[in-house]
């Protein structure tokens, strides 16, 4: 327990506090008046308003599109279901930069729709909303569908025997059981879209800006640290509130439900209704999830075959100090280091949280662990730069800075994946080992480890994928001669010219392939109880 | 004494689950703790195993105080209620677990696993997956696993709880034979009196964290210590009566009692075998309210006009029909004065 706490104190709380202090402290005095000043500025109020309503709209749209998908994945059985489940999850682990790029290629200037019908959406909010649905589809399908598949169908049958119509049985029995999962999924989507950065940065243009994008703009373009600090605090409070509600719904979800093996509840589609639903869901997946990725690949090939890919290996002397292809190696190294850190820290935290005698303080830490998912990554990145540059923690010039920041985002995934599995290990199994003469350490090695090994691998895979795609913090702390893949993509996109655009598409494709491969490996390892993601 | 508990107390919240329990188990003895669920039986085992810290009192093994000795160093075996076999190991891996923990060499482990699987009647099952075992087989593997490291005390928590009746009756005989052969010291807990009486040298009845009675199965069966024990053993003809001389005045009329019976207000038990049905114009007038076929006899519930119901054990061909009017007389040999 002490290690995760120290890690979060040193690499999360301290940098964030440092940057907030830097912004709000003038001549050693706190300037809390700034909060009121900033909050009443018209353009800031506009950003706050936009952030909130686009998050609400994205969440509603995602639920609308993904809930039928959750049903199809939970209750219908069709060939290729496993592969399709992996396919819909790919977007979730894709770096936001790639998502943004893919939608740009689809709906942007010179994009597929532009070429075909002259339709451009990149100047409208629809591009952002669609990208958010693309990104979060899997959150709803996995969280809601995971539970739906495990609900005992005999409960509905019992209601039918008591005289309820099929719809009524669903509404009175299944829906109440699902409600907490729907609420939890909606809150996660709201959290991800409320703090959206990469997608809005690329698709929002000058018109649309979320809090996170505004923090980035204030910090790195206008150098107005005090406004950035105030915005960070605002976002912090909002995220804290969302997480508090989420923790509450999760606890509600743990109420005793009769769960059964998901494999036995799925059936072949029957009747026109179910076939139509299946076709509809497959259509949506094809248009909304597969098409953007396909367009991305197609654009990366351009007119010149693999020309853009070949260009990646050349040092153009302008954008980077090294050929862009080096970003692949950097990214893999950083992500591996970040994975090791995240699994170690997250594993320790999950082990401490899974103890039955965990006190209220420890359980409170559970919610705190989720904070890095929502707190401004930009703030964390910039905080690293100003807080970790003097003894005892002088890491400014160390390569470890980037993995440390990426691990922060990976830890919540590790904890969420490991915790349900660890909690499911029967305490009496450990007692049985102890009575047979196994010391506490031996008990962990002989009983817990074999049972959580798969979950551990899944957790490591997720941590790897999110570390690979981390953008907000990395963009600040990656050194110009050592860019990561997302940073390189963003920089290429920021420069004019077909070659740069094509290279960005090519790099994004590489990133997508790496993430997809990691995910497909995970899907094979997936355990029945691998948490929420 | 191999095991001795003195004033052992465990509290959950404010409630004492074990309330100053004193209990001794001698070497080679088989002691069975009998009690309804929630009486603290399992907690007793967990306290001896070191899985449940005591709030008061002490547990000694071979005269040595065990406070502060962790579970894995106590050298006792515990067979869990639902077996708790390690799902990711095969049968052999489960049985060998304790041996590995004690650092036995590989050939010795294999030898001992074979020996134990033979002993519990599962020869050659070492490579089987535990998920493929039936309930009875799992129970045998759990027993072999607990016996393998040769614990000085073997504890069984509801050892036959989840098995069906015929298997249970067969296994309880096998277990008693096996423990006799090996000379194992056993402390078992169960809620099933038949199991306890068949298995134990000594039965300890628990109620609300305290010991209500301790004695041989015959003693406990013949002379239940109080109304609780009597009712727990399935005797329902329990009544208050005023004893004077050789008779007790009860709602069922005058009951004969032994000569040296203590005088005054007492609780009496009439065994069903001591309730004799006679023609309606003799003895206590009753109506037959219900009859239950018990295999060897029929349990007949009779309702006196102004007194609690009585249960009578009647031979099958003599059993009256529901609604018949009967008379009741009492056999002095089947009347017991309770504590």
Automatic annotation (TrEMBL), chain A:
Belongs to the binding-protein-dependent transport system permease family. It comes from the Bacteria. One of its GO terms (biological process) is transmembrane transport. Residues 48-244, 328-522 form the ABC transmembrane type-1 domain. This is Iron ABC transporter permease. InterPro entries: MetI-like, MetI-like_sf. GO terms for cellular component: plasma membrane. Its main location: membrane. It comes from Streptomyces guryensis. It is a multi-pass membrane protein. It is found in: Cell inner membrane; Cell membrane. Signal peptide: none annotated. The chain crosses the membrane at residues 53-74, 86-106, 126-145, 177-202, 222-248, 275-297, 332-353, 365-388, 400-419, 455-478, 501-522. Keywords: Cell inner membrane, Cell membrane, Membrane, Transmembrane, Transmembrane helix, Transport. Pfam families: BPD_transp_1.
TrEMBL record, chain B:
It comes from Streptomyces guryensis. It comes from the Bacteria. Signal peptide: none annotated. One of its GO terms (cellular component) is ATP-binding cassette (ABC) transporter complex. PANTHER family: SPERMIDINE/PUTRESCINE IMPORT ATP-BINDING PROTEIN POTA, SPERMIDINE_PUTRESCINE IMPORT ATP-BINDING PROTEIN POTA. One of its GO terms (molecular function) is ATP binding. Its EC number is 7.6.2.9. Keywords: ATP-binding, Nucleotide-binding, Transport. This is ABC-type quaternary amine transporter. The lineage of its organism: Bacteria, Bacillati, Actinomycetota, Actinomycetes, Kitasatosporales. Residues 3-233 form the ABC transporter domain. InterPro entries: AAA+_ATPase, ABC_SmlMolc_Importer, ABC_transporter-like_ATP-bd, ABC_transporter-like_CS, Mo/tungstate-bd_C_term_dom, P-loop_NTPase, Transp-assoc_OB_typ2. The keyword Magnesium does not apply.
């Amino acid at each position: 327990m002490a290690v995760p706490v120290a890690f979060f104190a040193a690499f999360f709380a301290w940098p964030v506090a440092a940057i907030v202090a830097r912004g709000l402290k003038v001549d050693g005095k706190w300037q809390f008046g700034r909060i009121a000043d900033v909050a009443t500025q018209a353009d800031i109020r506009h950003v706050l308003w936009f952030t909130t309503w686009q998050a609400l709209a994205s969440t509603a749209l995602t639920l609308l599109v993904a809930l039928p998908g959750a049903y199809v994945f939970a209750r219908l059985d069709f060939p290729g279901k496993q592969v399709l489940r992996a396919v819909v999850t790919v977007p979730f682990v894709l770096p936001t930069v790639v998502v943004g790029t893919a939608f740009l290629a689809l709906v942007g200037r010179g994009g597929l729709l532009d070429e075909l019908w002259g339709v451009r959406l990149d100047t409208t909010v629809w591009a952002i909303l669609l990208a958010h649905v693309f990104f979060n589809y899997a959150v709803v399908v996995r969280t809601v569908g995971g539970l739906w598949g495990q609900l005992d169908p005999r409960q509905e049958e019992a209601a039918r025997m008591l005289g309820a119509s099929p719809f009524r049985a669903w509404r009175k029995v299944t829906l109440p059981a699902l409600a907490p999962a729907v609420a939890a999924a909606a809150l996660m989507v709201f959290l991800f879209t409320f703090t959206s950065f990469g997608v809005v940065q690329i698709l929002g243009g000058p018109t649309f800006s979320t809090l996170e994008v505004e923090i980035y703009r204030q910090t790195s373009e206008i150098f107005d640290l005090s406004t950035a600090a105030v915005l960070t605090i605002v976002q912090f409070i909002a995220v804290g509130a969302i997480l508090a509600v989420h923790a509450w719904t999760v606890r509600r979800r743990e109420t005793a439900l009769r769960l059964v093996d998901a494999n036995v509840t799925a059936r072949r589609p029957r009747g026109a209704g179910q076939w139509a639903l299946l076709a509809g869901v497959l259509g949506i997946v094809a248009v909304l999830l597969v098409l953007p990725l396909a367009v991305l690949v197609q654009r990366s090939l351009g007119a010149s075959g693999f020309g853009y890919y070949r260009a990646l290996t050349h040092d153009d002397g302008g954008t980077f100090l090294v050929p862009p292809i080096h970003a692949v190696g950097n990214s893999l190294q950083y992500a591996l280091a970040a994975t090791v850190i995240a699994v170690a820290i997250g594993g320790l935290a999950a082990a401490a949280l899974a103890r039955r005698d965990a006190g209220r303080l420890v359980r409170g830490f559970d919610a705190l662990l989720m904070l890095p998912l929502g707190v401004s990554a930009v703030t964390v990145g910039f905080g690293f730069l100003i807080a970790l540059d003097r003894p005892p923690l002088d890491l400014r010039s160390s390569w470890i800075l980037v993995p440390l920041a990426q691990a922060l985002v990976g830890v919540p995934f590790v904890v969420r994946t490991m915790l349900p599995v660890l909690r499911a290990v029967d305490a009496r199994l450990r007692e049985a080992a102890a009575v047979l003469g196994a010391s506490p350490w031996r008990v962990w090695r002989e009983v817990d480890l074999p049972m959580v090994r798969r979950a551990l691998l899944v957790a490591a895979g997720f941590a790897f994928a999110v570390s690979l795609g981390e953008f907000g913090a990395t963009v600040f702390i990656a050194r110009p001669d050592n860019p990561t893949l997302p940073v390189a993509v963003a920089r290429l996109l920021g420069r004019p010219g077909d070659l740069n655009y094509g290279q960005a598409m090519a790099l994004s494709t590489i990133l997508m392939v790496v993430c997809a491969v990691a995910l497909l490996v995970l899907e094979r390892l997936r355990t029945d109880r691998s948490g929420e993601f | 004494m191999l095991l001795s508990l003195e004033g052992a107390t465990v509290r959950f919240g404010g409630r004492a689950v074990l309330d100053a329990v004193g209990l001794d188990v001698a070497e080679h003895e088989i002691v069975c703790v009998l009690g309804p669920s929630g009486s603290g039986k399992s907690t007793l085992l967990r306290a001896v195993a070191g899985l449940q810290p005591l709030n008061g009192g002490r547990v000694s093994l071979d005269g040595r105080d065990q406070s502060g000795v962790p579970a894995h160093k106590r050298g006792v075996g515990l067979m869990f209620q639902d077996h708790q076999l390690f799902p990711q190991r095969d049968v052999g891996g489960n049985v060998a677990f304790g041996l590995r923990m004690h650092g036995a060499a590989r050939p010795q482990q294999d030898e001992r696993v074979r020996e134990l699987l033979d002993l519990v009647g599962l020869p050659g099952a070492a490579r089987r997956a535990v998920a493929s075992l039936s309930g009875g087989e799992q129970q045998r593997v759990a027993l072999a696993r607990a016996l393998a490291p040769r614990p000085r005390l073997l504890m069984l928590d509801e050892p036959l709880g989840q098995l069906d009746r015929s298997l249970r009756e067969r296994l309880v005989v096998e277990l008693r034979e096996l423990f006799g052969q090996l000379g194992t010291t056993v402390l078992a807990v169960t809620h099933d009196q038949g199991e306890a009486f068949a298995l134990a040298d000594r039965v300890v009845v628990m109620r609300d964290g305290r010991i209500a009675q301790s004695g041989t199965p015959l003693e406990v069966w013949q002379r239940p210590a109080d109304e609780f024990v009597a009712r727990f053993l399935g005797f329902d003809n329990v009544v208050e009566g005023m004893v004077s001389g050789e008779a007790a005045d009860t709602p069922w009329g005058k009951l004969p009692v032994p000569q040296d019976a203590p005088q005054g207000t007492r609780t009496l038990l009439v065994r069903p075998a001591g309730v004799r049905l006679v023609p309606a114009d003799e003895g206590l007038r009753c109506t037959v309210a219900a009859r239950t076929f018990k295999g060897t006899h029929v349990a007949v519930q009779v309702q006196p006009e102004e007194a609690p119901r009585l249960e009578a054990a009647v031979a099958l061909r003599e059993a009256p029909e529901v609604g018949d009017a009967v008379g009741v007389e009492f056999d002095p040999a089947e009347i017991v004065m309770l504590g």
